[in-house]
Amino acid sequence: MQSLPVFLRLQGRAVILTGEGEAADAKRRLLERAGARIVSEGEEAALAIVSDGDEATVARLQARGILVNATDRPELCDFTLPAIVDRDPVLIAIGTGGASAGLAKALRQRIEALLPARLGALATALHDARGAIRKRWPDAAARRRAIDAGLATGGPIDPLSDKAVDAVPDWLAAQADVDADRLETIKLRSADPDDLTLRAARLLGEADRIYHAPDVPAAILDRARADAVRIAASAPPAQPGEGLSLWLEMER
To answer: 21, 116 in Cβ contact below 8 A?
Structure first.
């Protein structure tokens, strides 16, 4: 990655905005939606948007230690502004590192069409049910597995279903315990992560630990949960450990 995606809480915080015209107006609307307090160049702030991409303004602000976005000047930017899919409190940000705003927009429109309008309500319902979820599954690993199973494709609270938010109480009452300890084998057809099957991609996203042959490429391992343990090995483990473990090897 050339950039680290982050979500900044700007409610009540100062952000410098310079420039005039349509680009400045668009950035102003975006900052106001995020609750930022818009100030002029001479005031104190941690972030700035230079809507006309003026190089001299960018240099002055960066000299003060301020992180700057320069519209249509990706080479000058400390951060870029993504295309946004808003299902508050769920936000999906799509960035191209400034390479193509048009591509980001096209992807946003595709994703907008996929996501139910009530997705944000599902997030709120799960937040409100945190106490009940912890009571139902006191063990953290079991809780994560149960949530993964509930949110899986076709699961009782599948986030792409517009009925998911209404199903949360029934899911809590009826959800069966997910198998605690198991080892799944994935034979990789190629070194290209785009060739992963849906099943393989899902398991990589859920695994607690990943045992893998030495020739499994890093690009495949990067598709796994960030906090899953990676263990290079010459053969599948006899005792893989608690939770979901995977054995990855290249198909011969």
So the answer is: no
3 state SS of 59 = helix
- Cβ atoms of 39 and 15 within 8 Å: the answer is yes
Q: DSSP letter for 193, please.
A: G
Q: What is the pLDDT of residue 144?
A: 85
**Amino acid code (one letter) for 115:** L
- CA 106, CA 86: separation in Å to the nearest integer? 15
- What lies within 8 Å, CB to CB, of 165 at 6+ separation is 118, 121, 122, 125, 157
Low-confidence stretches of the chain (pLDDT < 50) are: none
Strands 90-94 and 83-87, bridge-based pairing:
antiparallel
SS3 helix, strand, coil % of the chain, rounded to 5?
Answer: 35, 20, 45
* Contact yes or no for 210/221 (Cβ under 8 A): yes
Structure tokens belonging to residue 52:
């006309």
